[in-house]
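Problem 3 from the worked examples.
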Amino acid sequence: MIDSPDNQSKVASFFGYEEHGTDTKTEVIAGITTFLTMSYIIVINPAILSEAITIDGYSDGQVFQMIAITTILAAVVGTVVMALYANRPFGLAPGMGLNAYFAFTVVITLGVPWQTALAAVFVEGVIFMAMSSVGARRYIIEFFPKPVKFAVGAGIGLFLLLLGLIEMNVATAHDSTLVTLGNVASDPVALLSLLGLAFTLVLYSRDVTGSIIIGILTTALAGWGLTLAGVVNDGLLTPGSVPDPHFDITPLVGAFIQGFQNIEPVTFAIVVFTFFFVDFFDTAGTLIGVSQFGGFLDDDGNLPEMEKPLMADAVATTFGAIIGTTTVTTYVESSTGIEEGGRTGMTALVVSLLFLLSLAVIPIVAAIPTYASYLALVVVGLIMLEGITEVNWEETDWLIPGGLTMVMMPLTASIATGIAAGIISYPIVKTAQGEYGDIHLAQWILAGAFVLYFYVTSGGVI
């Protein structure tokens, strides 16, 4: 019997219940809570990636379902490794921000084939695994300017906000101002999106567990209800057609191998670097923040054996690239489960099990309108803006690099450009202040590399 005293004792011993002051019931409740708060990724990741991934012989709906499945499988693998290897109550899944960078910047804007973009994710994952295995994290962190590291999260938040508002028809293109307010009072998509967003934000402000996924599903149901009632034309608030269930992901599995053909070295290197940079510091920052909330940090403010959860992230990212999805990272939503008392890998194990069970609802996910899915981008974007408070705006050497990092991401629709702007400006500002000793040689090298990259890619050289 799985619930026999002997088995319970083994589970308690394996996860260290006594050491962490917890029990199975508490861990299960915590796992359910974490899953509900991060399950929106099952809907939003395929909504974003399907904008860039097209497969001959398969409909958009079928591709959507393929990506939803790979999203779930990557989350399952990463969270299981987190549970059994790292013994931490953290959930993992393809990360917000990097999926948008993959789709809208790398594939759509730069014209990089999606298979090559997956190859870049794979390389980044392998590098991350190698670094995690030798404990190199602390050395790499020293190379990057603090203002840039602390500004990346807020910059990605602004980027996600813009993408979400555009997809919801709230923000639209304008010849003179580039972007302007859409016809929100007369456009059914914009109107329903705003109502759904308001409902979601009310739930979130009242600390309702699963507020984002509840908001997405409620908005989608409202769209279907208005359509079936004949209030709006068919296909306006709903997908044009609902695809049949499709569970075959073989066209995505291994597609990254094809991506290694005909690579443009400079562009590929910068894409790998950006995936690596954002994933590395986003994961590290999330781990520290969530660990602080759960009381896992030592007296020096460090997370003991931090390389283990970082390895879980790296393994999941590599696996995700192999089966066809983007960079996997630790989710800040894990803090909701910790708040419910989750303290061990059992919480993560429950999260992984629930992700696995969610494979049964893949056909339903394909019926959710895109605008409803993109509510998550706006909400998550707002949440990520909290990183603004981490930047010391009173110091010029923080203000300029940090500010440029943030604003250049949404203004250029590129996370990489924002990071580059911050890295290039940092040594220049420090030099102007006469603080040469604070500049690491690697920071000059990175700045020079980015200047060369912009000259090559924006100067008509390629």
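Problem 4, a separate protein:
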Amino acid sequence: MREIFAEVLTIGDEILYGQILDTNTKWISRELDDIGIKVRRKTAIGDKKSEITDALEESLKRSDIVLITGGLGPTKDDITKKTLAEYFNMELELNPSALEDVEDIFRRFGKALTDINRQQAYLPAGCRKIRNERGTAPGMWFEKDKKVIVSMPGVPFEMEAMMSKTILPRLKKHFPLPTIVHKVIKTIGIGESWLAEEISDWEDNLPEHLGLAYLPGKGQVRLRLTGVGEEREALETEMDKQIEEVLPSIKKYVFGFGDIQIEDAVGEILKSKELKIATAESCTGGFLAHRLTAVPGSSEYYWGSVISYHNDIKKDELGVSEKTLESYGAVSEETASEMAVGIRKKFKTDIGISTTGIAGPDGGTEEKPVGTVWMAISFGKNVVTRKIQLPGTRILNIEYTAIHALNFLRQTLDKQ
């Protein structure tokens, strides 16, 4: 069974000007992937006839399906329908069913149908009308040389309803579609290139119908294994075996699979060990607490936080000694350790974790440049510490510190 490819054309000057965010192509790509259609290319085009037809011609040379969004409104700058009518050499004619739909919408809102909106019921004579349940602009389905072209409104909630109810089911009937399965391995604490070296032999021996992609993020790399086949169950079984084969070589970096986040993984460990935790934050300003409490059910293990941004709070609320601050400074292993111990004792939890550092853009020195961060974990009589050096902007340094702290916590808990 051959693969079926699609392209998405998004029409509108407002998208090219950056005045609105194009969320349609992301949604469409995900939905097509779910039914076994691969998106080969996405293109944004202005409201100009020649650009629309040129892009359509190029897309049809490469792909089986072209999905077009935008430019179907009632105003003069909406030219998609007229352009497609000319491209397919079809006259615009009144579609009684489309007119009935438009009249019904105006009737529901208690308004009289205007002449300009009545024009939306005129469609290219040879297209198949697609009902728009949420707006006045119908969609249009064309076929040319065994390929399918679909034009939809650009308003997301109108397009999504049209796709879900009509277009996706029709595409599944029109094309014999393969099964596409994705499996994602979540790793942290190793860079993309180093990870690639660790699994190069395994990757080289993957069968042709399985592909691997590296998706780096903030402090993390997702490994996406994609399989294409005819039977989902057999394909998933094969992919699971491949994952079992590669896991031993990267186990210490893997924190989960699929959509799981690092804070979810940490939360599961805390729950399974029945441990309570509190946070003491300086440079992260509460962002670590935010990540931990973003997990539903985190109240089972998360007790609270002290944001000890000022040294007086470190002393008064966490018990960091004046001598420690004078001798080693706020950004130091010693201060981080006392913060972690202090928060654990204050909130009577099993674990205390702290962060203190220089987020930037100012405040760095030659000895402690911007991006210097110390973190500590206190549990029982033990304290473990870690120093990291980050190269980012202030916001990135804050975000990366929280991610590193969560991974530090995961690794520490795994050893217990």
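Solution to problem 4. The two ends are 50 Å apart (CA to CA). The longest strand covers residues 179-188.
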